[in-house]
Amino acid sequence: MQSSTILSVQNVCKTFPTRGGGVEALRDVSFSVARNELCVLLGPSGCGKSTLLNIVAGLHTPTSGTLSLEGRPIHGPARERGMVFQSYTSFPWLTVLENVEYGMKLNGIPKAERRERALHYIDLVHLTKFRDAYPKTLSGGMKQRVAIARTLANAPEILLMDEPYGALDAETRWHMQEMLLDIMRTTQTTILLVTHDIQEAIFLADRIVFLSAHPGRLKTILELDFKKGKEIRSKEDLVELEGYPECEREIMQLMRGEAKQEEDA
Amino acid sequence: MTQALRTLPATRAKDTRPKLRIFEFKSDIPASWRLTLGVAVWVLFFAIWQIAAWSGVMPAILLPGPGKVLTALYTLFAENGFLGDVLVSVWRVMFSFALACAVAVPLGILMGAFKSVEAFFSPFVSAWRYLPAPSFIPLLLMWFGAGDAQKLALLFIGVIWFLITLIADHTKAVPKDLINTSVTLGGSRWQVLRTVVVPAALPNIVIAMRQMLAVSWTYLVIAEITAADAGIGAMMMRAKRFLHVDQIMAGILVIGLLGLIFDYLLRALHRRAFQYLDEYS
User: Cβ distance A118 to A101 under 8 Å?
Assistant: First the structure.
């Protein structure tokens, strides 16, 4: 496990300065993500999971602690850590194809190669028919697919996703989750994904990093052993799996335990 | 189907067609209605005007009817070389507005994009915004005389501060996630500015220009009424000397018409340039 570590987060603390002396968002969080793994950051609201992801992206700087990708320290945002946001970030003035080519254009990839790679990833997210469409004609799920294709086409070493399906309706969300697993299988991607949706976490994750709230601390890391070696392609596959109800119950209790502590405090 | 679920036969819903109502909050009306209503307000306006002129509440020389004003308008163009005045006025507005945009667009974008630029310019711009432009007329007259330079300067001062503020605000409103998307794809500061901030703010910047162009027309007339030998305002002041109220009204009509035309042109440009926007689907 140690040898295949791609992202390492060590003793990260984050305090946002305020007039009253500061709000502590993260306290001493450490975990790592292995190559080709889908790691989920899960926890109740206020656990700082999005802040943590933003720190990994380089959009925030930690107050203390170190982060490294492939052994190189992380300073500021960079191409190698592409991010998909919860809000729709397809550039409305660019077509689907231009959107997917956008990152590669920034990085000076020659036009022919850019086009070829963009078309490949557009196909991967099933948007070939819409390659010349503008985002205004696309549904929310399609816009998120554009964002995923755009980030993947830019060849990041790790894909960061901040509640990417939070704004979608339930049925679209299933499709998107299933598609993401398909993409994982075919492209050998490493993903760090933030969610507050327990079922989404169990369905997608190889490993769940569970944070507790106020301040955000590492509560536990869950290895989803009951999924190991099983072929899971749809939500139904997951629900039928032995060990699934127990796993879901355990995480629910973790969440509730957090909520209860909040009330008691 | 498992035992846990029971299916019920579907029932047909009754056909309830929505009724078309005139007063419905924020709901669209047919295009034909929009046109009819738009024309109706003008018909009503001219009718009231005509009735007022006929009724004799004011002497005919002070309140000519619409017919007389239209005649005066024709005479102005056909015999008095009014077209030259109109072109001078249009040129003044266009040239000064282009100058104002050339300064305000880059400055406003930089102020909206970078807090440091905003912190430097904002106190200055805000102070100037509160100074009424016409208060500079005496000064401008002494500096530049009654020629074109004075008019251009007044028009420039009249719109530039508001233009900068509006453009800065629109730039500030560019969603942070769009910027962060570009940054996490590897975009440099300059690339983000050029490929995200500017294109994202541009549609609203054009709207700000449309709004401020209307203000520019206001200052044009003020400038031309105070001192000018050519232009629509100058013609109106000449007409006042000879009690040609019909010509003054014709001048007002032309200013209104020109404003309408410019507004329409900018609207059309907006629609054409930004077809990708949701509002044009």
Answer: yes
**B75-274 belongs to CATH 1.10.3720.10:** yes
Backbone torsions φ then ψ of A69, nearest 5 degrees: -120, 120
Element containing residue A210 per DSSP (H, E) = strand A207-212
Picking from B178, B195, B277, the nearest residue to A89 by CB comes out as B178
**What is the predicted pLDDT for the residue at B15?**
65
Greater pLDDT, B1 or B123: B123
Interchain pair A82, B185: CB under 8 A: yes
pLDDT bucket at A46, cuts 50 / 70 / 90: confident
ipTM of the shown complex: 0.90
DSSP secondary structure, B91-134, as one string: HHHHHHHHHHHHHHHHHHHHHHH-HHHHHHHHHHHHHHHTS-GG
Q: Which of B176, B178, B181, B204 to mutate to test the interface with A (most CBs of A within 10 A)?
A: B181
User: If you average pLDDT over residues B222-231, what whole number do you get?
Assistant: 83
Query: Least CB-CB distance to B186: which of A78, A89, A134?
Result: A78
Q: Would the pLDDT of B2 be above 60?
A: no
* A to B CB pairs, distance under 8 Å: 69
Contact B184 A58 (CB under 8 A): yes
Whether residue B218 is predicted with pLDDT greater than 70 in this model: the reply is yes
Question: Considering the domain A1-77+197-231+259-265 in this protein, what is its CATH number?
Answer: 3.40.50.300
What are the sequence ranges of the domains in chain B?
75-274
